[in-house]
């Protein structure tokens, strides 16, 4: 199986490492617009060779787009224009509606599988690629009814070789869900980092920062080239998620302003319900609340 990985950063590089390790891929063709990324990926053995996009499209059995979502929108139609009927194309972007809309009427739409492996770190570039990144993490496959069966089966087999269970959603459902469980945590981490950086005498804060702060703000180190387009493409659902989050922040603020320790305690007790979901129990959450949380914490 010849695999072309377009984008040799954290996700593309990690997938290449594991798909080689599991012998799903017999050869990995790397494509990256950054010559330094391409060189490092070759040196690290992430790719067997580096080619331009046109050559990779012609030679690959399966093409993985692991580039920022704004670039996927631009590149995907051209790739579908050039592939053979037997070539499978998938992407690993965190948003799906705009990407799917771009190719909804393309003659080769059935060769394209919209997927989102929900794994990652705050690091970027080929040096950040690691093995076993995807094991026991969930992968969302979108709009499977629009995919030709043989191409869907191949992508399912690929993710199964990475050790990923698969969930099926529409593109709209996936964007709504990930707005709460993936995009909102990143937005709040960026905001927390900015809030602390805005404090005039912040050095003492960083000197005293403990594990709680570091784990909460960790996502603020994520690549702006990747995350700004995600926020923009999913801006309506992320705005909704932020409104819900701000409402709950305001509740905490009001309990403090009103000198109401009972309300404060109730808010914390309510939040503790998350423990039951993470431990596989079934607290008094709605089905939608439980689904949203479970998707990102399995």
Report on this structure:
54% of the residues lie in helices and 11% in strands. It is of the alpha/beta class and 298 residues long. The chain has two domains: 2-169, NAD(P)-binding Rossmann-like Domain (Rossmann fold); 173-297, 6-phosphogluconate dehydrogenase C-terminal like domain (6-phosphogluconate dehydrogenase C-terminal fold, Orthogonal Bundle). An eight-stranded mixed sheet has the order 3-2-1-4-5-6-7-8, sandwiched between helices. The chain is globular and about 65 Å long. The model has no long low-confidence stretch (mean pLDDT 91).
What CATH calls the topology of the largest domain is: Rossmann fold
Kindly state the mean pLDDT as a whole number? Answer: 91
H/E series, N to C? EHEHEHEHEHEEHEHHHHHHHH
Question: Roughly what percent helix?
Answer: 40-55%
Inertia-based shape: globular
CATH class of the largest domain: Alpha Beta
SS class:
alpha/beta
What count of helical segments does DSSP give?
14
Poorly predicted runs are none
Rg, Å, rounded: 21 Å
Assigned CATH superfamily of the largest domain: NAD(P)-binding Rossmann-like Domain
Largest sheet: 8 strands, mixed
Strands of the widest sheet, in order across it, are 3-2-1-4-5-6-7-8
